[in-house]
Specification:
With about 425 residues, the protein is of the alpha+beta class. The chain folds into 2 domains: about 140 residues, Four Helix Bundle (Hemerythrin (Met), subunit A), CATH 1.20.120; about 280 residues, Alpha-Beta Complex (paralog of FGE (formylglycine-generating enzyme)). It is about 30% helix and about 10% strand. It is built from 9 helices and 14 strands. The strands form 5 sheets. The chain has a 4-stranded mixed sheet with strand order 12-11-10-13.
Amino acid sequence: MSALRAQVMRDLARARVRTAALTDLDDAELTAQHSPLMSPLVWDLAHIANQEERWLLREAAGLEAERPDIDDLYDAFRHPRATRNGLPLLDPAQARRYADDVRARVTESLEKCEFDTDLTRDGFVYSMIAQHEQQHDETMLATHQLRSGPPVLFAPEAPRTGHPVEADEITVPACEVEIGTSIDPAALDNERPAHRVHVPAFRIDTFPVTNGRYLEFMADGGYDRPELWSETGWEHRLRAGLEAPQFWTRQHDGTWWRRRFGVMVPVHPDEPVVHVCFHEADAYARWAGKRLPTEVEWETAARWNPVEQRSTRYPWGDVDPGPEHANLGQRHLGPAVVGAYPAGASPLGVQQLIGDVWEWTSSGFEPYPGFVAFPYREYSEVFFGGDYRVLRGGSFGTDAVACRGTFRNWDHPIRRQIFSGFRCARDIPDTPDVADV
């Protein structure tokens, strides 16, 4: 067995183990609409299988469709999430059987794959589907956070001890960097092509903003001061009644607790804040005298190695993430404290850029110069423009296969059910551009 074929099989198998764990519930839980923002879990399960069938069996292997009659039911563009529970969906047993049947055929067809077409070269389409399944697994994890009732997911606690650092901010000198990639075989179309960008010097937070810092913003009237919010953000804050991050509850003694997958836990001051929308992040940054980084600034902090004068795949280099580098893959059910992963620091000293929480940037979701949609327009192109804001870095619920320094996530600026946090940046005033170092 070739190394590429073995890696493809491992990635697909790891995703399926996680899918099975997230759907190991009774039928009532799987078919319930836990939130109008999310699909019933049974829809995600069959959608995962349907995408796998369409791309790995029909498109990549040229095989006959197994269930063409259900394509419409599991087309995410035809049916909004809030209405999917009213569709004639496969029941849990049927969905599991369908997923198993598709995977069995994929495993058989993979043995014959020569990886010699545009779709299969370097294992691209198989990686795309492994990423797709893991992305839906993270979506299902968010559904678990939204559901009511006793906990059904368990994991070891994330690291509670952080290593101290000397500076709260890191200076990123002016540089010309490569943004995106043209060579990473796993990269999706919106990460391509690589292009050079001149980045003026700036400062960026060493860590994501913590609960403790966010509590200071709240205590200083952050939710009651319209001057800290954009006009659109303030309108949303009033309309939605925002007063704290989602899932936070203030106790009678004044302390804050949060609901985490069915368990109430005290808000830990040293964890990155999570479940905040773009508007909340933007208001905090303004309160702190800073701003949110652009996605180019974020990627520069995460990938630029000034000594080697090149961009790496991850902050720590080009090797795949290990448990010492980042909090990924649902090993834990929440962020680790800041300073928990010094081995994952970038050469510039910026930490926890990968894992823990998705980080809002100030950038809208737009194509890179020279963008070409591949292999289908609906993955990225139809989302360009509008009010979407880019998030970077992945969360504790993101698998390593769907997380790298070039990976771009995006969502509406009002969304909070996602595992989103942020870090701040600021300009360096009156500082001329300096030579690359």
